[in-house]
Write a structure and sequence with these properties.
heterotrimer, A mainly alpha (292), B alpha/beta (340), C alpha/beta (288), A: 292 residues, mainly alpha, MetI-like fold, 10 helices, B: 340 residues, eight-stranded mixed β-sheet, three-stranded antiparallel β-sheet
């Protein structure tokens, strides 16, 4: 009877548990490794860097690759490798703040919009559209103008600008869950709205939110780099990949390596989080289908 | 108009006319993944015009059998053995996609359970019927095909066939959609019509008409019908012969009026008892088969039914062969006694 | 059935209309009547069968009975208390006294929850303690092993999942269980087990059973009273044997005529005859 639904899944009738183990796809491995590398670099920078990344050494300005300075030094004689390591901290900080704000505000808002009355949903989603129509970078620049440029204000702005995408996703996921019979069963059992949101909706949309988070993480990293490059983001002397890029631009011809390494780091981080997102999506989606 | 649709009252053994080449001949069909057999040793033939039911529960492999016949198995699932269609020069097992695309919808057609998903939602249903005829060059041009399509829709008794031809699937009711699916399946007069639970998604009052249409359709074309279902009453209404499938094997086969009145396999016996809502024990409870249908690949070795069978013995560790006796066959070491 | 005992459920002239989505800015949205003027009583201990096809309004009616939805007009009383139109906070007693078993044994169990938590959910909702013994007792009552509580729904077959669903429905010791097509997604060999289980439990816990199905033969086996719904209206209601053997309404006759049974088929009733009987029962209603 229910057999026709998905004959393809017949050979793999034992779903989740058995399946998950074998579902280590390449994107997940590569993305996960890159992200692990960045986290490793950030952690390492707390205990060890070759040099103090902010130490100005007039004697060693603009040295090239050498045994002393693996990736050379910049125009103030600061060690590029050390800056990169510490810059990883900024990058992660940026992502965590921005995605944290977006997910923590956006997800409940989306769940509320999906579970509440039609009017509540409409109001939240139209507010969302309004926010979505506002460019994230513009908002960040406005924040910087009002509160002064800093990593935190930049990221708060990026985070708030990312709220709608989380809210929208959470809402569509919530609508899906609310249409299931197990939510109907929970209602028939007398569960309150809040209990249904926490016990049924949230666990069942968490996969979606995690995937979205890793993609938003990549976007936040790019945004921070762009803002720092424009001078609205991380203030000197805190090392940041975006600012390293900005400081290197006047020397692009004489010392292209100064742009190259932070550039690679940013690209790698963005790639890593995007791949991780893709990999997680692949891993979460089949399980969603098996349930049907 | 359809007095040729004899009920199960056809004389036993009438299933296989002597002279005619069978419309479909399946030999030792085996379907499975690398490490899992899903269908084992399935052999049967369909004579032209013969109506055969394939019954089984979920996981029995009945729907997979239909997919194997159409060469539509998912990639990781492989078939071996032989599937031959009359007037088709090659074996369906191992045939290329190109070869199969000429056969599907032409020599062999299928009606699925869910009519909504079987139709293209953004295409008028008349065009969908016309397309299948054009595809297999049964009609010279688009206009002729369109005209023939309206005729087909009239034959499946859609009210206002002209108007219906211009409708999109979502504008039709479930029963009407399934009629369109049937029209598409019958458009090219297939030698074999496969129906996989064609009425399960329909209301009972609609079901009766749908069954009638299917039978009229195959009778007019002398097509062989393989009717897959879990519903014993439906299969008894529609078919003259039945194949009972369990755990990927055919455990019993024969003329319906014999198999359903004097089953030999304990599984068939159990199915009949369990689906009889009028037969109850002393406490007013229905008869049951103990246990549940195992998941695919979890059936016991030897006799697939032995873990749910009251008569199982040590002997059942060996796979019982399908023993033929006249028009009937069963695969059981301890068959249900024939009443004397 | 004709005892003067007060009904456990009393439905009076209930209507439920749904509004379609707006298609025009200027015209008011059209309304779909799902349930139209339905009235009936269900007595304690009754096995009440509700039969109807898709679009008959039976699913809407179940939601109304369980106060998961509220009628546009009319009233529904449970044990003398009005439940229609009441806010959720005043329905606590109903949530304990009336439980629902849903059709889809996969969809009605949260895939992210352990069986133990699923079964305990109505108790948790009612702020009642859930001793482990109680969970074990419920699992045993529905014929599942003790260790089933630690597992997740996907690890069970369809029939076992429906047992889980039934265990959940019994957890608050309800007086009424509404079963919405509880066996229509199950295999033939498992269907009989679940029907027997429901009958056993109904006896053991003296339950009032509201059994909803499109399958007349199943309802006939389970229920002592049958109510037939068609196009949102209750077209016929009465003792099972009366309704089945001597249907009064043309739609009921149609329904009875349409069901293929093994007995009839083996007696030589063909599909063509079934179809003719359906048309003959009610020529005007016929789909063509």
């Amino acid at each position: 009877m229910s057999e026709q639904v998905n004959v393809v899944s017949v050979p793999v009738a034992e779903p989740a548990a058995a399946r998950r183990g074998s579902r280590l796809n390449p994107s997940l491995i590569v993305g996960g490794s890159i992200v692990a590398l960045i986290i490793g670099a950030a952690l390492l920078s707390f205990v060890w860097t070759p040099y103090d990344p902010t130490r100005i050494d007039a004697a060693a300005r603009l040295t090239s690759y050498s045994g002393d300075h693996w990736l050379g030094t910049d125009k103030f004689g600061r060690d590029v490798f050390s800056q990169l390591l510490v810059g990883a901290r900024t990058t992660l900080f940026v992502g965590i703040v921005a995605v944290g704000i977006a997910a923590v505000i956006g997800t409940p808002l989306g769940i509320f919009a999906g579970m509440g009355s039609r009017w509540a949903g409409e109001i939240v989603m139209r507010g969302n559209d309004l926010l979505l129509a506002f460019p994230a970078l513009l908002m960040a620049i406005m924040f910087a103008a009002v509160y002064g440029p800093s990593t935190l204000t930049a990221m708060a702005a990026i985070g708030i600008a990312t709220v709608p995408s989380f809210a929208r996703l959470a809402r569509s996921g919530t609508l899906g869950v609310m249409n299931t019979e197990y939510v109907l069963a929970a209602r028939a059992a007398g569960r309150t709205r809040r209990a249904i949101a926490v016990r049924h909706v949230l666990p069942n949309i968490s996969g979606l939110v995690i995937v979205q988070s890793s993609v938003a993480f990549a976007i936040a990293i790019l945004a921070e780099a762009a803002l720092s490059f424009l001078g609205f983001g991380t203030r000197p002397p805190t090392p940041s990949w975006g600012r390293m890029l900005q400081e290197s631009q006047e020397l692009l011809h004489s010392a292209p390596r100064l742009a190259l390494w932070p550039g690679i780091a940013i690209a790698l981080a963005v790639l890593g989080f995007n791949l991780l997102g893709d990999g997680l999506r692949d891993r979460f989606d089949p399980r969603l289908e098996v349930r049907r | 108009m359809n007095n040729q649709i004899a009920g199960p009252s056809t004389p036993p053994g009438a299933g296989i006319p002597d002279a005619a080449e069978p419309a479909l001949r399946v030999r030792d069909l085996r379907v499975g993944t690398d490490n899992l057999d899903l269908i084992t040793d399935v052999s049967f033939t369909l004579a032209p015009g013969e109506r055969v039911g394939l019954i089984g529960e979920s996981g029995s492999g009945k729907s997979l059998t239909a997919l194997a016949l159409l060469g539509l198995l998912p990639e990781e699932v492989k078939a071996s053995g032989s599937i031959r269609l009359s007037e088709v020069g090659f074996d369906v097992v191992g045939a290329s996609e190109r070869q199969m695309s000429k056969v599907r919808g032409d020599r062999m057609a299928m009606v699925f359970q869910e009519p909504m998903t079987a139709l293209n939602p953004v295409m008028q249903v008349g065009d969908q019927v016309a397309e299948i005829m054009l595809l297999h060059r049964r009609q010279p041009d688009r206009r002729a095909a369109r005209r023939a399509a309206v005729e087909m829709l009239a034959k499946v008794r859609l009210p206002d066939p002209e108007g219906a031809a211009r409708a999109y699937p979502h504008q039709l009711s479930g029963g009407q959609r399934q009629r369109v699916v049937l029209a598409i399946a019958l458009a090219n007069d297939p030698a074999v019509l496969l129906c996989d639970e064609p009425t399960t998604a329909l209301d009972v009052t609609v079901q009766a008409h749908m069954l009638d249409l299917i039978l009229t359709g195959v009778a007019e074309r002398d097509s062989a019908l393989l009717f897959i279902t879990h519903d014993l009453a439906v299969v008894a209404t529609v078919c003259e012969r039945v194949l009972v499938m369990y755990g990927g094997r055919i455990v019993e086969s024969g003329p319906i009026d014999e198999v359903f009145t004097r089953p030999r396999h304990p599984y068939t016996r159990g199915l009949l008892d369990a689906s009889d809502m009028d037969a109850v024990d002393g406490r007013g409870r229905l008869h049951t088969i103990p246990g549940t249908v195992p998941a695919a690949g979890r059936f016991p070795d030897g006799c697939v039914f032995r873990n749910r069978c009251a008569h199982a013995t040590q002997q059942c560790v060996q796979v019982p062969p399908l023993e033929h006796k006249g028009a009937r066959a069963h695969a059981c070491w301890h068959p249900v006694e024939e009443p004397t | 059935m004709s005892q003067p005992s007060p009904p456990i459920l009393s439905v009076r002239d209930v209507h439920r209309r749904y509004r379609r989505a707006r298609t025009s800015l200027f015209k008011p949205p059209s309304e779909v009547p799902a349930v139209r003027g339905v009235s009936f009583d269900i007595q304690p201990g009754q096995r009440f069968g509700l039969v109807g096809e898709s679009g008959s309004g039976k699913s809407t009616l179940i939601r109304l009975l369980a106060a998961l939805d509220h009628p546009t007009s009319g009233s529904i009383e449970f044990e003398g208390h009005r439940i229609s139109g009441q806010p959720e906070r005043r329905l606590g007693f109903l949530r304990e006294r009336l439980q629902v078993v849903f059709q889809d044994p996969m969809g009605s169990l949260d895939p992210r929850m352990r069986v133990r938590d699923i079964i305990a959910e109505p108790l948790v909702a009612a702020r009642k303690p859930t001793p482990p013994d109680r969970i074990r007792e419920l699992l045993t009552a529905v014929g599942l092993p003790d260790d089933a509580g630690d597992r997740y729904p996907h690890q069970f077959s369809g029939g076992q999942r429906q047992r889980i669903s039934i265990a959940r429905a019994l957890s608050t010791r309800p007086s009424v269980v509404v079963a919405d097509e509880p066996v229509s997604a199950l295999d033939v060999s498992v269907r009989a087990q679940i029907l027997n289980l429901l009958a056993d439990l109904a006896d053991e816990y003296s339950l009032t059973l509201v059994f909803v199905s499109h399958d007349l033969s199943v309802v006939r086996h389970v229920c002592d009273t049958i109510a037939v719904m068609h196009h949102g209206e209750l077209v016929e209601m009465g003792a099972t044997t009366d309704v089945y053997d001597n249907p009064q309404h043309s739609y009921t006759r149609r329904l009875v005529a349409a069901v293929p049974t093994l007995r009839r088929a083996l007696a030589g009733v063909s599909a063509a005859e079934l179809a003719r009987a359906v048309t003959a029962a009610d020529p005007e209603e016929d789909e063509q």
